[in-house]
Design goal:
This protein is of the alpha+beta class. The chain is built from 11 helices and 14 strands.
């Protein structure tokens, strides 16, 4: 049974009615007064849906195209080659089909693994990086195939460009939450926790119950920037409870908030459920960039989001602990289980 009640909304105006389109161009260009105009738009989108389209984001379309081409090159490798780079304890590397499950999801009780394969990269640290030498959790090195020339360069160029875009958006989120424009900047200093996930969804047998490319879930990031190819499959659960298939709007990223933003804002900003079902009959590719604070930083509800009659709903927590907890709930290799079947048997 398909959990998603997809709605055929394909035009710009209809999409904007459900998920707001926000123009970051004037703010990124330094236009006077633009932040004061932008922040209320961001606040409305984050309070009402938790998703928005970012227009005039500053990332060149040519760079996005190169990233998708690099993704296709990687996934075209033979399985044994990809498994040489299998996802490690820092969640960097290759994740095969059926090797993860939405175990942390409060939206849907998953009974089957996710039917996608993924390739994760993070900051491209050298062997002598202090955190690598110390074996610090979540601060490992990327894994790269040996003979795909240009792949590393294209993927890391995209990683850097989208990360810079997300950093430039931070003041808008801060002001939208009633905080100083520079409030979030220190939390994202010194190599913030950032992951780039290249995703490949093979065509699915949609006659199978509870089979998803990515089961319904919320992200654990501060924010996620999603680039999609032309093949549909994504569905977002609107506050009404209906599932909505957001169309691709050229020149935009689809931005959504994660659980860390919801925690920070004391539930004022939404971390909205979404998932993927690839019933198109074609291969589907997408690229998700997860932007989050430095793992050593302590996350606690903002003073602007608590008060008399509205106490903090979440205790202060070190972000690294929250990430590790999330990974253990969702990735079989983090649980110490030998197989997907063994993991599912314990849930």
């Amino acid at each position: 049974m398909n959990l998603f009640k997809e709605q055929a909304v394909s035009d710009y105006a209809a999409a904007a009615h459900a998920i707001q389109v926000i123009d970051f161009g004037p703010f990124f260009a330094g236009e006077q007064g633009s932040l004061d105009r932008l922040a209320p738009e961001v606040a409305h989108a984050c309070e009402q849906v938790g998703f928005f389209y970012a227009l005039n984001h500053g990332v060149p379309e040519s760079l996005i195209a190169r990233a998708f081409a690099a993704s296709r090159r990687f996934f075209a490798l033979p399985l044994e080659r990809k498994l040489e780079l299998k996802l490690n304890e820092n969640n960097i590397g290759y994740l095969p089909l059926n090797a993860s499950i939405q175990g942390a999801s409060t939206v849907h009780k998953a009974t089957k693994p996710n039917f996608n394969e993924s390739f994760f990269v993070s900051h491209d640290r050298e062997p002598d990086h202090p955190d690598v030498v110390a074996g610090k959790p979540l601060r490992g090195r990327n894994q790269w195939p040996a003979d795909l020339l240009g792949l590393r360069e294209d993927m890391m160029a995209y990683f850097s460009a989208v990360g810079a875009m997300c950093d430039r958006m931070l003041p808008a989120f801060a002001v939208a939450l009633g905080m100083p424009a520079d409030f979030f900047a220190p939390y994202f200093a010194d190599e913030a926790h950032a992951n780039l996930r290249f995703l490949h969804y093979p065509p699915q047998d949609t006659g199978e119950d509870d089979a998803f490319g990515q089961g319904p879930h919320t992200d654990n990031s501060f924010m996620t920037a999603l680039a999609r190819s032309e093949v549909p499959g994504l569905a977002v659960r609107l506050p009404s409870g209906e599932w909505f298939a957001p169309p691709i709007i050229p020149g935009t990223f689809l931005i959504n908030l994660g659980n860390i933003m919801r925690r920070w804002s004391n539930d004022r900003f939404l971390s909205t459920p979404h998932g993927v079902l690839n019933d198109s009959g074609m291969d589907r590719y997408s690229i998700a960039y997860f932007h989050s604070p430095n793992p050593d930083r302590v996350i606690e509800c903002l003073p602007s989001c608590v008060g008399p009659g509205n106490p903090a709903r979440y205790p202060a927590a070190v972000y690294r602990d929250l990430v590790v907890e999330f990974y253990r709930a969702n990735y079989f290799h983090q649980r110490g289980h030998r197989s997907a079947a063994a993991a599912l048997a314990t849930d």
